[in-house]
Amino acid sequence: MLTVCLAGLGKNAKGQSPETMMRRAGGWVAWVFVAGLAGMAGMVDLHAQSSLNTVRVGQGVIMVGDSEAKLSRLEQPQRRVQTFNRLGAPVGHRYEYRAGGRTVHVEVSGGRVVAAYIVSDS
């Protein structure tokens, strides 16, 4: 049915047949669909953790860009985990703090805080 409808359209200015144009458009449609699904998966992840620029740790406040020394002066973490890149090389540490029914993760790389977020405990 689609071929019958497209057959009457002829070729475009580049000399492409309607079938070629539909195949190329189909590739873009699939790509946009996959990108949309990936975006929705990221939205679902926002319920599990909240990415912030500033978090409270003990009696102090840590911001992205602060030094690891400032982080260590505030409070002892419950856990310190080494982080790795996709190839398995160590790139830094993640400090985990628990307080008031929530878990705070602070990621450090190169001696600086690169991420700070609250992970819900529910």
Descriptive account of the structure:
The protein is an alpha+beta fold. Helices cover 34% and strands 36% of the residues. It contains 3 helices and 7 strands, in the order ααβββαββββ. It has a 5-stranded antiparallel beta sheet, with no helix packed on it. Strands 2-3 form a two-stranded antiparallel sheet. Mean pLDDT is 75; it is low at 1-7 and 41-49.
Summarize the structure.
The chain is an alpha+beta fold and 122 residues long. 34% of the residues lie in helices and 36% in strands.
Question: Helix and strand layout, with pairings?
Answer:
Blueprint: H1 2-7, H2 18-45, E1 49-52, E2 54-57, E3 60-63, H3 68-74, E4 79-84, E5 90-99, E6 102-109, E7 112-119
Antiparallel strand pairs: 1-7, 2-3, 4-5, 5-6, 6-7
* Helix segment tally: 3
CA gyration radius, whole angstroms: 25 Å
Structural class: alpha+beta
Secondary-structure element series: HHEEEHEEEE
Q: In which range does the helix fraction lie? A: 25-40%
Provide mean pLDDT, rounded: 75
Which residues sit in consecutive blocks of at least 5 with pLDDT less than 50? 1-7, 41-49
Q: Strand-residue fraction? A: 35-45%
Q: For the terminal residues, how far apart are their CA atoms?
A: 52 Å
Strand order of the largest sheet: 1-7-6-5-4
